[in-house]
Structure formats: C-alpha cells, structure tokens
Amino acid sequence: MAILDYHGHSTFTLTTDDGSRIVIDPFFDENPWTDISAVDVEADFIFCTHGHEDHFVDAISIARSTNAMMVGSFELIAYVQSQGIENAHPMHIGGSWDFPFGRVKMTIAHHGGMIAGAGAEGFTTSPAGLLFDLGPNKRLYHAGDTALTLDMQLLKGKVDVALIPIGDNFTMGPEDAVTAIDFIGPSVVVPIHYNTWPYIEQDPEEFRSLVGERAIVEILVPGQGSYEF
Ligand code: NI
C-alpha cells in the first residue's frame, strides 16, 4: 500500500510499499496551509518539480537533516550540489530512472525556470512533472506547475492517480485541468496548487462538479487523513 499525505499547495509525502519515504515539492515552513514543519519531515528521497520557492524552499534543509537523496533536473541538482548537498541524482525531461521503490520519469511542464535560493542566480532550469510507477494501479503523476499542454496526451493510459494544479493565474485553472484529465485519463484526481494565496483561490467542490464522471476527485486536506492506493 502506498500512502500519500497532502501538506497543502503542491507538497506531498509518499510512503511506498518498500517503506521508502518520499517528499515531493517541499514547502512547509512558509506554507500557510501545511500541517507540519520542515524539521519534522522524515525522508529518504526529495523530489522537486522545479526551483520556485513554493516547491523547493525547504529541500536543502530537509536534505541536510535527513541525508535524503535529492532528485530534480540537472540544473537544480547542480545548484544544490553547489550548496554542499552530495546525495543527489540529476534527471531531465523525458528521462526515467529505476529507484528502489519504482521507476520515475520526468515529464514536460510549461512554466517558469528560475531557481530560488542563495547563490542561485546563475542557475535556471526547465520545470517538470513527475510520473512515479510504483506498480500495477499505482502510477502517480505529479504535474508540477504547468499550463495545459497537448503533451499530456502522451500520458494517456499511463496514470492511475493524477495530482493536478487547479489554481489558475500561475498554472492551469479548473477548466483546463478538466481538459488535462480528458487527455490523461486517470482514475483518481487530486487538485493541488490552490487556496494558498488570493491569486489562486478555487473551490475544489466546484472542480469536482466540473470533472463529473471523468474521474474520482479526492479532495485532500492537510492533517485530515492519507490517501492510500
Ligand atoms: Ni512555480
């Protein structure tokens, strides 16, 4: 059983069948919606979709406190290595790698490439999505921050659970997220990247209505139970 916990915005912790503890897009201490502090996070792996502060700000501190392996784009990893993080694995768009818990592919996301951090001025990257293949019926797609893109059609039939931004303004909004669901065809959708700030206020129940029969919409609330799959 894989156990997925939502910590608000785009931040998740995931425990896989083999007991690996994965953090995705660590944004804890400045996240108005989170239920835990970065110092309390336990991790074996840290995955970041991109370098914006609200997906990356706590990555280095958690990497230091846990010695978890940091995984991200080549440029993001070059930056964290420049900050003294040695346990790190670079990837890039379109590439896959077998980790102990399963295979992960970096997918296309259309968004900004700045990396936020001290001394990061010389580093920019392509933002990404992440497709975790944890076994049959356990293929988890974290879309990262992205616009709706036709490239999502390439994911058709390859995703069981999709974590999809609905906030609008910085990423796709609810209507485009519904089109993304049509492109991808997941069984379960979890809305993310909404209600953190006024720019991205959305009603997840309205989103559920828009999705209709296309997929089950799981509205996760930090601290109020895990999603198991
Ligand atoms: Ni972003």
What does this structure look like?
The chain has 229 residues and is α/β, with parallel strands linked by helices. Helix content is 17%, strand content 26%. It has 5 helices and 14 strands. The chain has a 7-stranded mixed β-sheet, with helices on one face. The chain has a 7-stranded mixed β-sheet with strand order 7-8-9-10-11-12-13. The longest helix has 11 residues, at 174-184. The radius of gyration is 16 Å and the shape is globular. The chain starts with a strand and ends with a strand. The mean pLDDT is 97. It binds nickel (II) ion. Nickel (II) ion binds at residues 50, 52, 55, 111-112, 145.
By DSSP (H or I, 4+ residues per run), the number of helices equals 5
- Compressed to H and E, one letter per element, the order equals EEEEHHEHEEEEEEHEHEE
Determine Rg (CA atoms, Å): 16 Å
In spatial order, strands of the major sheet run 6-5-4-3-2-1-14
- The percentage of residues in β strands lies in 25-35%
The proportion of residues forming helix, as a percent range, comes to 10-25%
Shape: globular
Structural class: alpha/beta
Ligands bound to this protein structure:
nickel (II) ion
- Runs in which pLDDT lies below 50 for 5 or more consecutive residues are none
Please count the beta strands (DSSP E, at least 2 residues each).
14
Please report the distance between the alpha carbons of the first and last residues. Answer: 6 Å
Name the average pLDDT.
97
